[in-house]
């Protein structure tokens, strides 16, 4: 399920946010590391000021499968290829 969602997000047409050169940026479907949390997270939505993430554990959980968290761009540590 996680892989299917990731692939679907990558295939959607999206417009990257307006970011300054040199600042980290990500796109829906990317896996990222955050400063505020451990583990890898899947980017589901991107805006100019924030991005939303979910993770495999939440997707596999019956009660949390729709859970998403919004983070500021300053919380983006690294994009995993």
UniProtKB/TrEMBL annotation:
It comes from the Bacteria. Residues 1-27 are annotated as: Disordered. This is Uncharacterized protein. The lineage of its organism: Bacteria, Pseudomonadati, Bacteroidota, Chitinophagia, Chitinophagales.
């Amino acid at each position: 399920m996680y892989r299917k969602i990731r692939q679907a997000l990558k295939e959607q047409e999206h417009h990257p946010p307006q970011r300054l050169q040199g600042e980290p940026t990500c796109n829906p479907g990317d896996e990222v590391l955050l400063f505020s949390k451990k583990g890898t997270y899947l980017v589901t939505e991107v805006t100019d000021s924030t991005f939303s993430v979910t993770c495999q554990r939440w997707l596999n959980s019956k009660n949390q499968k729709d859970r998403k968290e919004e983070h500021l761009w300053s919380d983006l540590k690294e994009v995993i290829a």
